[in-house]
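#onboarding

Welcome to the new folks! Below is a worked example of what a typical request in this channel looks like: someone posts a single protein sequence, and someone else replies with the predicted structure as tokens. Don't worry about understanding the tokens yet, we'll cover that in week two.

Example request:
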Amino acid sequence: MLFNSYAFIFGFLPVTLLGFFLLGRRSALAAATWLALASVVFYAWWDWHFSFVLLASILLNYAAGRILAARAAAGSEVRWPLLLAVGANLLALGYYKYMGFFAVAAAELLRLDLPVAQVALPIGISFFTFTQIAFLVDAARGRVSEPSFVHYLLFVTYFPHLIAGPVLHHAEMIPQFRRKEAYAPREEAIAVGLTVFLLGLFKKVVLADEVAVYANAAFAPGHAPSLGCVEAWGGTLAYTLQIYFDFSAYSDMAVGLSRLFNIRLPANFESPYQACSVIDFWRRWHITLSRFLRDYLYIPLGGNRRGRLRRHANLMATMVLGGLWHGAGWTFLIWGALHGFYLMLNHAWRHACSKVGIAPGDSIAGRIAGWAVTFLAVMMAWVFFRAPDLQTAFTVLRAMAGLQGIAPPVAMDAREILLLTALSAIALLAPNIRQIMGRNDLVLGPVPATRPDRRLQWRPGVAWATACFGMFVVSLLQMTRVSQFLYFQF
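Example response:
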């Protein structure tokens, strides 16, 4: 079920919300059970067969987590039980997501003509697998207090995050599910939640889906060889903006939906195209995935504790695996490796500057230069992320380099130029949702350092209500061409 669908907006959401608060008057546990079961139905809406994969994963990981927590509390050996439990999760993820990719790669390497079975990918498997791996590791470290099965089920299946994140941490969510006050409606939370949800809905169906037309045309395998330089840059910028507004929209809608239920999700998206370095970009883009990779991969590999060379190797390994997490393909692997290389260069640059007493980004010129280099590097990497195969990716890059001809600006129509200009201005200059909503405890995480002018901040009133209603009407009219969020495929 899609957030941007009539069935969700006029059916699932009001029924789930009403049942949640009606049951919450009598029993917090009953309301939590209702929300967990509704989340399972939300997941099963796609393909009910995959709900068995989800539920089996939850049952096995909950049992494994209890065993690990008990052994940690007793001071018993936890290493091998943890490796077994994490290995089982990775095995399931590898079977569904990577078996076809590695089988094809092996067949090509060995020059064998072998039939490769195509395995259907359960939607959201990467997100609920990573969420539960973090739970298992923390259980083995003695950091897990005993959750009830209902709360654990809700923690994993909670529908605002289940399909495309954020990657949740049990220490953030389960204490919220235990609060009795979370099960009573609050006018402020509902007003804030609806506003944020509608802003996200507008971003998705009016902005992201609109610019997707130009990105899809540029990266179509049959069209890429005919791209000129201008059209290639326009198509790449179109995808750069499409994935920005698509993921920003999903993040906003997830946060808004969660606030309706008096639950706060962790911050996951903070104006990443305003970053002045690749390091800063990854502190703003898919924040919870970056946190997971840092805490459960980069640091266990040694982090930056064993010298600069080892740190660079750890960064590269982390980002390559992060790229493969997004998809089973060489394009995703190269995308991850590029960002690993960018991070290595960024850290090396900072180290070189510190040696001569220079602070990067202290001056306006330095920040502008840092932003320009970062944005260009991210754009170039998106070519591999978007391209359906390596051949298309390299064809688009050749076109961007002018090797397929320098087409005049008329290669892009006026509507495309206007749309790309407007969306670029919003992504690069506009305040993000946390800044717009001000001090409304929108998400978990530190308060943003910068604040927009007070006139841009949300406050209950006729002006904002009218604006939200207008965005809702426009969004409904555009929802005749419903499309999935890009991160659903991961």
